[in-house]
Amino acid sequence: MKTRLLLAFGALLACVAMPWLARLPKGLDWVAQYVPEEGMVLTGLLFLGSFSLLPGIVAACMVLLSRPRFYLPVSMATLFALIFLGYAHYHLDLAADAQASIALIFIPSDAAALALLGGLIGWGIQALMPDTVGKIV
């Protein structure tokens, strides 16, 4: 039970942190696009963080389908979500267009759909694996 809670919390934390982590390679000016101005810091961070929770919640719910040893549904759901979040947030330039900020809503919702797909693929692979995999008989 403790392992499942740690996996769920790790999936949530990774999905919330990914928008800022994906922008670090391009420099602090690129990260500053995701940090609101002084008067709206709390509101802006809550806005971005709440939408970033969507794929994390889907990945964390895959813990309920996971079996010990490999935990494939939660692992694959988190992997699919993080790859998409990293790619999309790395390439999103908020200064390019006035409507570019709409992507801050659509990127996490698309990542949640991919997390669900990854979790279902992991669940299918896990269902095909015998229970004796990794055990000494």
Structure in words:
By secondary structure, the chain is mainly alpha-helical. 67% of the residues lie in helices and 0% in strands. It contains five helices and no strands. Helix 3 (41-61) runs parallel beside helix 5 (103-128). The radius of gyration is 17 Å and the shape is elongated. The chain starts with a helix and ends in a 9-residue tail after the last helix. The model has no long low-confidence stretch (mean pLDDT 88).
Quick one: overall form?
elongated
Number of strands: 0
State the helix count.
5
Beginning-to-end CA distance, first to last residue: 25 Å
Helix/strand-derived class? mainly alpha
Cα Rg: 17 Å
The major pleated sheet works out as: none
Taken in chain order, the helices and strands follow as HHHHH
